Amino acid sequence: MRGGFRVHVVSDVHGNSEGLRRAGDGADALVCLGDLVLFLDYHDHSRGIFPELFGEANADRLVELRTARRFEEARDLARSLWQGIDRNAAIESAVRKQYAELFAAFPTPTYATYGNVDIPHLWSEYAAAGTTVLDGERVEIGGRVFGFVGGGLRTPMRTPYEIDDEEYAAKIEALGEVDVLCSHIPPDVPELCYDTVARRFERGSAALLDAIRATRPAYALFGHVHQPLARRMRIGATECVNVGHFASSGTPWVLEW
Questions:
Q1: What InterPro entries does UniProt report for this protein, alphabetically (predicted)?
Q2: Which residues contact 101 (CB under 8 A, 6 or more apart)?
Q3: Less crowded by CB within 10 Å, the N or C end of the chain?
Q4: Distances in Å between the alpha carbon of 246 and those of 36, 58, 191, 197?
Q5: 117, 15 in Cβ contact below 8 A?
Q6: Is the residue at 168 inside a domain?
Q7: pLDDT tens per residue across all 257 residues of the chain
């Protein structure tokens, strides 16, 4: 019989409800670090909200422009496609459909925070009694203190839950000392922020890095960068781990004590 405590951790679910239903198997708790929504699958351009609305050919073009960092042209394309459509209503309707399926897949107990593509104000409508949503808050899981910081920092991509650096730093400061620091984005370390397939740096947080050095949690767990140059590294006393791109792997990262 297994002793101790076991937590499974996932991030960047991006619509993988089938995998999410199994993610808590064998664990005492599931931790989710956000990005439940699938707006556009960069590997399969037929999947996600954007191609459902505008077709795969337009999704191909949008990915091409974004990958080339031609963000203004990408925005021009999107603006032309959205003409005559209530963008907010269409996106919210599609996100609600995804959230209904994804939140129903969460096991009990689940502890979750938002990713940069999530829409926070909708979560309270779908989170059942067994799902605890945390952002700038702490919780005890199996005798260890976990701190959660949701969302991302502002970028040219303008995803739904991007906030100013100062607001993000304030959430980290509110946590104080924790055993496990959970965030969607990584600390601002080049090896943890560089995506080897997209061939670009994603935004990491300098405030997260400062907190790791100052408070020395045992673990700092995050996702966001789908194919990082380094999946884990030690910063002082802290093991920093990218828990993986759950949308493609379907496999949670395991923490036991």
A1: Calcineurin-like_PHP, Metallo-depent_PP-like, UPF0046_metallophosphoest
A2: 17
A3: N
A4: 10, 26, 20, 16
A5: no
A6: yes
A7: 456 999 999 999 999 999 999 999 999 999 999 999 999 988 899 999 999 999 999 999 999 998 898 999 999 999 999 999 999 899 999 999 999 999 999 999 999 999 999 999 999 999 999 999 999 999 999 999 999 999 999 999 899 999 999 999 999 999 999 999 999 999 999 999 999 988 899 999 999 999 999 999 999 999 999 999 999 999 999 999 999 999 999 999 999 99
